[in-house]
Design a protein that fits this description.
The protein has about 70 residues and is an all-alpha fold. About 55% of the residues lie in helices and about 0% in strands.
Length: about 70
């Protein structure tokens, strides 16, 4: 990517973070709890997934040999 002028622009932000020796990079865990709370406050709600839907889903992926070893 460094040799391609179109792609090197995508790397520049990462390189800037990498060049900084005074800060330690850490992964930030992601969670959707806050987003879910905000959506509920704005009135966005969805019903829980029905048991029949889950059964059909598992049966379907099982038919595709998803669980075979």
């Amino acid at each position: 990517m460094m040799e391609n002028p179109d792609l090197v622009t995508l790397l520049r932000p990462l390189m800037a973070y990498n060049l900084s020796s005074t800060y330690e990079m850490r992964w930030i865990e992601s969670t959707n709890e806050y987003t879910t709370q905000v959506l509920y406050r704005f009135g966005f709600q969805w019903p829980p997934t029905a048991r029949g839907y889950v059964s059909r889903f598992v049966d379907t992926i099982s038919d595709f040999d998803y669980f075979s070893v």
